[in-house]
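We now fix the convention by which a protein and its fold are recorded. Here is one such record, which you should read through line by line:

>
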Amino acid sequence: MRTVLLAAALVSLLSAAGCSRSEPTPGAAPTAPSPKKDPATARKMIAEGAAVVDVRTAGEFAEEHLPGAINVPVESIREHLAEVDKLVGGDKAKAVVVYCAAGSRAAKAKGVLEEAGYQRVVNGGGLDDLR
């Protein structure tokens, strides 16, 4: 019974972490909608000193990025939470803006940061949204 519950939990977790908009697995619990992007709030927070995290690939970041942003690709954000912690000076109540190319990777990163205890995370959407 425990194995069945663990397998069900793993399937649910993998479904929620998927990158595409595939059809839901029949019988699986619905997942929560992705946090929407909010570029206007993000721009305001950046102007007020929010930490800025670019969750695109290193190559995308090297081509261009917002001034003061650090690069933590979304695929490895869980492994690099210490970098975000350093950026906010250990204060998980400090505002953090995450962005990518269009907003979907930033939505995933926002979820990871909130799970880690960050209290004021905003999905800024894409780089073009924040310029």
